[in-house]
């Protein structure tokens, strides 16, 4: 069973149509949840880190929120340049290595 | 500018050959990582290193080897023992893995294709 599950796998939106991406996790002790954006053929670009339930962070049209079981990446009035794959990663406190585990990502396409 | 570089961008390997992927960072980060990315899969950890001259296996280390002789460099060798090496390889670095704020910064990736 995956520790980090992202949904939906793919999402198509019209420009201006707001929506949310989901990242649910099953780790025992959260020590950070990370969001990244990845453009085709490129390395992931860091967006946000969230540490505790109730925390929120914003950057332009993106807002990330965190609960005890999941995180949402809200995209408000998206533009075509927001098209990318969005990756979620979770770091847990058990084990001591603190290496993040990545989800499979959500592929977002925003049509003009 | 600080960042992570990977080379080459594209690499072609014949069956039975070993190839080495380069990763260099000038962010003064202690930790470095190698991931493999396949279509429809998340990033899977191959190896990571928390300090010079030390490294640990990740989830899919079989058929790969690494070295960490300098803080700035963490090359990955894909050996002939790796049965399905065609993939996109990503190198990342971060401050020490035990730090609170240790988000990873990624390089641009190397796409390896077996001919």
Find the structural class of chain A using helix and strand composition. Answer: mainly beta
Rounded average pLDDT of chain B: 92
Segments of chain B where pLDDT lies below 50 for 5+ residues? none
Helix content of chain A: under 10%
User: Sheet with the most strands of chain B?
Assistant: 7 strands, mixed
Biggest sheet layout of chain A: 6 strands, mixed
Q: Which structural class best describes the helix and strand composition of chain B? A: mainly beta
Give me the count of strands of chain A: 11
In percent, how helical is the residue content of chain B? Answer: under 10%
Strand content of chain A: over 45%
Give start-end ranges of low-pLDDT stretches of chain A: none
Principal-axes shape call of chain B? globular
Radius of gyration of chain A: 14 Å
DSSP strand tally of chain B: 11
What would you call the quaternary organization? Answer: heterodimer
Query: Beta-strand level of the residues of chain B, as a percent range?
Result: over 45%
Number of helices of chain B: 0
Q: Cα distance, first to last residue of chain A? A: 37 Å
What would you note in describing this structure?
Chain A is an all-beta fold and 112 residues long. Chain A has no helices and eleven strands. Chain A is globular. Chain A starts with a strand and ends with a strand. The model of chain A has no long low-confidence stretch (mean pLDDT 92). Chain B is mainly β and 115 residues long. Chain B has strands spanning 4-7, 10-13, 19-25, 31-37, 44-51, 54-57, 64-66, 76-78, 87-94, 105-106, 110-114. In chain B, the strands form two sheets. In chain B, strands 2, 4, 5, 6, 9, 10 and 11 form a seven-stranded mixed sheet that branches. In chain B, strands 1-3-8-7 form a four-stranded antiparallel sheet, with no helix packed on it. The termini of chain B are far apart. The relative contact order of chain B is 0.33. The mean pLDDT of chain B is 92. The A-B interface holds A 4, 32, 34, 36, 41-46, 49, 51, 87, 89, 97-105 and B 4, 6, 33, 35, 40-45, 48, 56, 58, 88, 90, 92, 97-98, 100-109, 111.
